[in-house]
Structure formats: structure tokens, C-alpha cells
Design brief:
This protein is mainly alpha-helical. 59% of the residues lie in helices and 10% in strands. It contains 13 helices and eleven strands. It has helices at residues 3-15, 19-38, 48-65, 71-88, 91-118, 127-131, 143-174, 176-187, 191-207, 240-243, 247-250, 258-261, 278-294; strands at residues 45-47, 135-136, 139-140, 213-217, 222-223, 229-230, 235-239, 299-301, 308-309, 317-319, 321-324. The strands form five sheets. It has a three-stranded antiparallel sheet. The chain has a two-stranded antiparallel ribbon with strand order 2-3. Strands 4-7 form a two-stranded antiparallel sheet. A hairpin with a 2-residue loop joins strand 2 and strand 3. Helix 2 (19-38) packs parallel to helix 13, helix 3 crosses helix 4 (71-88) and helix 3 runs antiparallel to helix 7. The longest helix is centred in the middle third of the chain and has 32 residues, at 143-174. Bound molecules: protoporphyrin IX containing FE. Protoporphyrin IX containing FE (HEM) binds next to helix 1, helix 7 and helix 13. Residues 10, 13, 152-153, 157, 160-161, 164, 211, 214, 240, 267-269, 273-277, 280-281 line the site of protoporphyrin IX containing FE (HEM).
């Protein structure tokens, strides 16, 4: 979807992810994060990607969308199946996994359609039900369109969020001065400290971007600065991870400089399709770090196991073994 058609639907999507909407969600995100961290065992190895990132991502999304808590294990299993399909690069498996996800989403949409058929004037009780009342081009959204929107908000985001948590926790477990700085900032977080925390989150993700790339099709011939010519109608890959480590933009790509580098990172893309969930994702990641660092005296790497890098075409870490003090 592109151009005017994309803009019409994008306006609906954006209205659910404004700064005010994210601010409203923050107490819920803090509560979910605190419960997930409280439930983690102390003084033994836990995996920051699955035990923390994936569980938080699924639970926070369910709460935000108004989906039942019973879906949690189904969604966690789906995340594993989805990862497996991506790693095998098997198109048939991809289709099966995508269909399975559509079924989960459709059940939620159908349940709300049934309730509204009985009581058409009731005030929507959650984000999923609100979508049933949205209009585009002066008509209500179809079930297909609502499923597609919800799929975009969940299917990709659950895994991205878990991988982002892995990247952040791996770094703060390995780098004591960074962990100490974050602990200091969270001790009495205010707007200025939150801004620094968010810049640190972005900088960790810039250096080790787990959301690697997206595709585009050129709409006209393109000449690149190095003389390379790409004809119209060519599929190209936008490599966000590579762009985020471009020495011409960032100098030494591994130099950690949150405030200077933040305005130039491409973690959430750029242009008309740039991630509408950026603020929400950042608030989610901040909530996880706050819960982790305010309820533990120390987060350290496990003694007997190193983090396992994720396999291409995925990126980040498949497993980040840590011990909570
Ligand atoms: C967890 C960290 C996240 C990362 C790293 C991330 C990254 C991205 C990137 C790079 C794009 C651009 C895609 C493109 O240009 O083709 C994108 C698009 C998108 N993201 Fe995110 N995202 C994240 C979280 C979220 C969240 C929490 C939501 C919503 C709940 C979300 C919803 C979307 C949607 C709907 C699009 C498509 C936008 C469009 O085509 O207009 N993302 N995301």
C-alpha cells in the first residue's frame, strides 16, 4: 500500500499511537513489566530474550489491545514458529504461520463484532473494539482491513520487541558503567532523565539493530551517488542495520554517543512508512529497563554461558543468559 491509499489508512493507525495515547498506556506498561520481572528467579540464569522480552511483549500487547491473558501461551508458541519459518526461509511454512496468526487476530475481531451486534451503541471497551468504529474513505473498515492493521501491530512487533530487549540487556549486563548510569537515571526519573534514557535505548539499538531491513520497489530509475544505476520496478532492500553503522554518518559505528547520534539513527525507518509505533516501542523498552533496574541490585552475565547471536536473516541475540542479583 502506498501514496494516497496508504496515507488514508496511516492516519487511522497514527491516531492510536500519539504521545497522549502512549502516555495513557505507560502505567499499564509499568505494571506489566514489574510483574514479569518479579516473577523471574534470582541468583540463577534467565534468558533476557524469552523469559523477559518475549513474555513482556506478549503480555503488554494483549493488555493494550484488550486481548485475553489466555492468549499469552498461544502467542509465545506462535513467536517460536514464526522465528523458525524465517530461519528456514521456507515460503510454505511462512504462509502457514501467517494464516495461524490471522486466525488468532480474526477470533478477537469476530468476538467484538458479535458483542456489538447485540449492543451497537455501547462505548468501545478496548483498542480492538475501537477499530470497528473507524472509517476510511467514508466507510467502515472491513474485517480484512482490521485484521491487517492488527497483524502489523503485533506480528512483527512482538519479535522485534523481544530482540530489542535482548540487545539492551546484553549491553547493560556486560557494561557496568552503562548499567550504573541507567540505575542513576531511573532512581528519580523525570522528563530530562527519560530523554537521556530514551537516547541510550536508541543508541544501543543503532549499534546492534535487530530490525534489519525492509523491501521497496523503485518507481523510477535511480542514480546513486557512487554512479550505480537502478532501473524502475526493481526490488531493493533498505538495510537499516547497515545504514545505522555508516561511518560517513556516525564515524566509528561502535562509539557510544547517545545524544549526538540519536537524531540520525534509522532504527524505526524514515519517510512515509516510518514506524508509527516508535514512541510506544520506546515506552515499552523504558518500562522493561525501569522494572529490571529498580527491583534488582545487579544484573550480570551468566558465569557459564555466553549470549548466542541470532542467525541471519534475523539479528540481535537469540539468547542472552543473565543472572539477577
Ligand atoms: C520494537 C521495536 C520496533 C522497531 C525496531 C520497529 C521498526 C520499524 C521499521 C524500521 C519500520 C519501517 C518499515 C518500512 O519502512 O518498510 C516500521 C514500520 C511499522 N511499524 Fe514498527 N518497529 C517497532 C515497534 C513497533 C510497534 C510497537 C508498533 C505498533 C504497535 C509498530 C508498528 C509498525 C507499523 C504499523 C509499521 C508500518 C508503517 C507503514 O508502512 O506506514 N512497530 N517499524
Amino acid at each position: 500500500m502506498d501514496g494516497d491509499e496508504h496515507r488514508a489508512f496511516r492516519a487511522v493507525v497514527d491516531s492510536y499511537m500519539t504521545s497522549d495515547a502512549v502516555a495513557d498506556a505507560e502505567p499499564m506498561l509499568a505494571e506489566v513489566a514489574a510483574k514479569v520481572v518479579d516473577a523471574l528467579p534470582r541468583a540463577e540464569t534467565v534468558d533476557a530474550v524469552h523469559d523477559l522480552g518475549a513474555v513482556f511483549a506478549v503480555r503488554a500487547q494483549c493488555r493494550w489491545l484488550g486481548w485475553p491473558a489466555e492468549l499469552e501461551s498461544e502467542l509465545l508458541t506462535w513467536m517460536d514458529d514464526h522465528r523458525d519459518a524465517v530461519l528456514r526461509m521456507d515460503p510454505a511454512r511462512h504462509v502457514a504461520v501467517a494464516d495461524a496468526f490471522d486466525d488468532i487476530v480474526r477470533r478477537q475481531v469476530d468476538a467484538r463484532r458479535d458483542v456489538r451486534a447485540e449492543d451497537p451503541d455501547r462505548t468501545p471497551r478496548d483498542v480492538t473494539e475501537r477499530l470497528l468504529l473507524e472509517t476510511v474513505h467514508g466507510r467502515p473498515l472491513t474485517t480484512e482491513e482490521i485484521v491487517s492493521i492488527l497483524r502489523n501491530w503485533t506480528a512483527g512487533d512482538l519479535s522485534s520487541l523481544a530482540l530489542c530487549v535482548g540487545v539492551l540487556v546484553r549491553r547493560l549486563a556486560d557494561e557496568a558503567p552503562l548499567q550504573d548510569r541507567l540505575r542513576f537515571l531511573f532512581r528519580a526519573a523525570d522528563a530530562a532523565r527519560n530523554a537521556e534514557i530514551d537516547a541510550i535505548i536508541d543508541e544501543c539499538l543503532r549499534i546492534e539493530d535487530p530490525f534489519v531491513s525492509n523491501r521497496r520497489v523503485t518507481t523510477c530509475p535511480v542514480a546513486l551517488p557512487d554512479g550505480q544505476r537502478i532501473p524502475a520496478d526493481t526490488t531493493v532492500i533498505l538495510d537499516w542495520a547497515e545504514a545505522n553503522r555508516d561511518p560517513e554518518v556516525f564515524g566509528d559505528p561502535d562509539a557510544f554517543d547517545p545524544i549526538v547520534n540519536r537524531p540520525r539513527n534509522l532504527i524505526y525507518g524514515i519517510g512515509p512508512h516510518a514506524c508509527p509505533g516508535r514512541e510506544l516501542a520506546t515506552a515499552e523498552l523504558r518500562a522493561v529497563l525501569a522494572a529490571l533496574l529498580t527491583s534488582t541490585p545487579a544484573v550480570r552475565p551468566a558465569d557459564d554461558e555466553r549470549p548466542t547471536p541470532e542467525q541471519p536473516p534475523l539479528a540481535g541475540w537469540a539468547r542472552v543468559p543473565i543472572v539477577l542479583g
